[in-house]
Design brief:
49% of the residues lie in helices and 9% in strands.
Length: 79
C-alpha cells in the first residue's frame, strides 16, 4: 500500500479519505456535532491520519448516513 500525503488525505492510491469538515458539510451538521456523536457511541470512532485528524472513507460516510436514517425512523415511530 503506497502512502500519499495530500489535501484529500489519501492513504493509498485507491481510497479517498475525507476530513471531518467534509463529512460535516455532506451531512449538513457541525464538526462538533459529529465529534459528540462519536463520543456518545452513536457513530463508529473515526480512524486517524498521521497528524491525528479524523478521516472517513466513502464507506464510513454511507454507514453514518444509514445510522442517522435509522435514528430518524425510530424517532418517528415514537410520536
Amino acid at each position: 500500500m503506497k502512502e500519499v500525503e495530500s489535501d484529500m488525505l489519501t492513504f493509498d492510491d485507491e481510497r479517498r479519505m475525507y476530513k471531518i469538515g467534509e463529512l460535516a458539510k455532506e451531512l449538513d451538521r457541525s464538526t462538533l456535532t459529529i465529534k459528540k456523536w462519536e463520543e456518545s457511541g452513536l457513530i463508529p470512532v473515526a480512524r486517524r491520519d498521521s497528524r491525528g485528524w479524523r478521516c472517513y472513507t466513502e464507506g464510513d460516510i454511507s454507514k453514518i448516513k444509514e445510522i442517522l436514517k435509522i435514528g430518524r425512523a425510530s424517532c418517528r415511530e415514537r410520536v
